[in-house]
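[step 3/7] inverse_fold.run input=structure_tokens len=151
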């Protein structure tokens, strides 16, 4: 069973962003499914290191894309979005560092943190920029950077 079921409730309506969000969600589900197949702590540790690293790299690429898109649209909430992304990156960097140092981490806690943060971020912070980005894409520069939730 999937950890996260992708539904239209999660979508922003911005095709490329939704594609990237969906791919991260698939990667998280794959990590969760593979974890259930682990037969030893060593196997779980190896999987965790590899999967968290890949998820962190993918999230970094997504954040870079999203932040450029928001900058191009003169989104006034960009700095807050960057702070949110920075928190997630820092947390994953901390997890990776602790893992490399040999600390025994609870893999399910890591997975649930990523799931919870990712879904909360999409359904709150990311939703706030949708109207601005759609206006910019439609060539309505008078609306770029404005709009509700664009603080």
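[step 3/7] decode complete -> sequence:
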């Amino acid at each position: 069973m999937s950890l996260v079921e992708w539904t239209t409730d999660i979508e922003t309506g911005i095709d490329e962003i939704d594609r990237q969000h969906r791919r991260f969600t698939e990667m998280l589900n794959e990590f969760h499914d593979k974890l259930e197949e682990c037969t030893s702590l060593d196997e779980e540790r190896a999987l965790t290191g590899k999967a968290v690293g890949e998820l962190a790299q993918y999230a970094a690429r997504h954040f870079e894309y999203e932040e450029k898109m928001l900058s191009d649209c003169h989104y006034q909430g960009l700095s807050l979005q960057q702070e949110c992304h920075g928190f997630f990156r820092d947390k994953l960097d901390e997890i990776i560092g602790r893992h490399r140092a040999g600390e025994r981490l609870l893999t399910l806690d890591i997975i649930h943190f990523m799931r919870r943060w990712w879904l909360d971020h999409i359904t709150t912070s990311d939703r706030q920029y949708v109207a601005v980005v759609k206006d910019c894409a439609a060539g309505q520069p008078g609306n770029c950077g404005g709009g509700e939730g664009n603080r």
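[step 4/7] annotate
The chain has a mean pLDDT of 88.
The domain at 15-143 is CATH 1.20.120.50 (Four Helix Bundle (Hemerythrin (Met), subunit A)).
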